[in-house]
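Please decode residue identities from the backbone states below.
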């Protein structure tokens, strides 16, 4: 399996997931069509599927166009039928999706949207998280609450540390700058921030991350960090000791950062 990150729109990533044996491919989050067609041509692969993580236009805006041009299957949460354009295959957690010989399993991770799906290629330790889990961040809570997002992130955090995390936006540097304000003594954060800033100066992506890296750098997975908790409670003295309170205050701070 080969994964090709394709920058689209302003700061989005779509991904071309290629079965290198059968030379077929899936697009994860088709925001724009022409960049994906060009990527597939460069890989010598035929696009047969679109995996939509959620209904926001910057992730599905190209669905109808690509479905008009190619005989693709368009996958997304069955409950988002009517919100995901050109949906042909509504899926639920526990289902399987085949792209050639590759197998993906959707994981329901609501809160950014109520029907948000991540796609896990377990055999290849690859996870496509859309706008739920970012490198050093998580999505805004448009259709859910802090407890729901914590539950969603816990599902993803339970995957093996080497699992590669392919997220929906290039937010890494800004996210790590925020993380550093809460855990200034966390060397993993400062090291990854330096690395990420260098990557961006060179015009390179900061994806993929890994679950292991996120455990050590992502404030939304680190509500048990004593340094982070003290930083939050210093800013919000009314916040108690419950993890969900720490998480909610962290999300509120990030919304304003």
């Amino acid at each position: 399996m080969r994964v090709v990150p394709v920058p689209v729109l302003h700061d989005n990533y779509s991904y071309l997931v290629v079965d290198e044996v059968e030379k077929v491919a899936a697009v994860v989050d088709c925001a724009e069509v022409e960049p994906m067609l060009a990527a597939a041509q460069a890989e010598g692969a035929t696009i047969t599927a679109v995996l939509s993580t959620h209904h926001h236009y910057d992730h599905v805006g190209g669905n109808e166009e690509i479905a008009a041009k190619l005989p693709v299957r368009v996958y997304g949460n069955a409950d988002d039928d009517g919100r995901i354009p050109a949906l042909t295959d509504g899926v639920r957690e526990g289902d399987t999706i085949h792209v050639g010989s590759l197998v993906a399993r959707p994981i329901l991770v609501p809160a950014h949207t109520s029907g948000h799906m991540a796609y896990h290629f377990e055999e290849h330790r690859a996870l496509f998280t859309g706008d739920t889990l970012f490198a050093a961040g998580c999505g805004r809570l448009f259709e859910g609450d802090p407890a729901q997002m914590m539950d969603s992130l816990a599902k993803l955090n339970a995957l093996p540390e080497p699992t590669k995390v392919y997220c929906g936006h290039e937010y890494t540097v800004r996210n790590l700058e925020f993380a550093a304000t809460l855990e200034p003594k966390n060397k993993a954060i400062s090291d990854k921030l330096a690395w990420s800033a260098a990557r961006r100066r060179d015009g390179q992506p900061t994806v993929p991350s890994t679950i292991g890296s996120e455990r050590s750098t992502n404030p939304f997975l680190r509500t048990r960090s004593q340094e982070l908790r003290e930083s939050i409670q210093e800013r919000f003295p009314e916040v108690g000791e419950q993890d969900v309170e720490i998480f909610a205050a962290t999300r509120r701070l990030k919304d304003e950062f």
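Observation: The two ends are 37 Å apart (CA to CA).
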